[in-house]
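Customer ticket, subject: "Can you confirm the structure for Adenosine 5'-phosphosulfate reductase?"

Message body: Hello, I'm evaluating your service for our small team and ran a test protein. I'd like someone to confirm that this is what the system normally returns, since I don't have a reference to compare against.
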Amino acid sequence: MTTATDLQQLAEQAGRDLEDASALEILKWAAETFGPRFCVTSSMEDAVVAHLASRAFPGVDVVFLDTGYHFPETIGTRDAVAEVMDVNVLTLTPRQTVAEQDAEYGPKLHDRNPDLCCALRKVRPLEEGLAAYDAWATGLRRDESPTRAGTPVVGWDPKRQKVKISPIARWTQADVDAYVTEHGVLTNPLLMDGYASVGCAPCTRRVLEGEDARAGRWAGSNKTECGLHG
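Agent reply: Thanks for trying us out. I re-ran your input and got the following:
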């Protein structure tokens, strides 16, 4: 029986051993180590990590959180990924519909208490959805924002007691763009329309020249993360 302590030690050692490994090598390690107890999470901003994972682990589970607030383009990207990639897309939904949440908490909770809205519509569904896995992969990159600068390629997620894998942590936006071009990877159309980071529609705006990629998320507030990664 693998304990949380075992997994944490494994994650910390792998983080050191794989720091200079390629993204594909990191994902192959994950596939060999965890098998079906490993999944990829994707916001469907782009499908780079899903595409990489499909090469390392054909048929890998790709977990998508449908918050009920997504842009139509994001849902379309999810559907296209499910159609054309060798992955198994799993859609998680919150316990309440938007209408049910509005009835309990009042409309536009995202404007009044975005932390609670994210907790209800992102954090809790992900925690429930990850119950079947020992390890999950994300598309976090160190260059996205100061809050992500220390992201390990393999680390320990103490909140969920899981191994957290960020295979493209060392990549730059130029690396992502090059991979997308080389492999014809699906990307969210909004990335071509001034959005550098795509989240829920009410809390996402286009970025201005010189802003970091996360500046368009929860603009005008001190909030920088939804709670999934911090």
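A couple of notes from the result: Helices lie at 4-17, 23-34, 48-56, 72-84, 98-105, 109-112, 114-129, 173-183. The chain has a mean pLDDT of 91. Feel free to reply with more questions.
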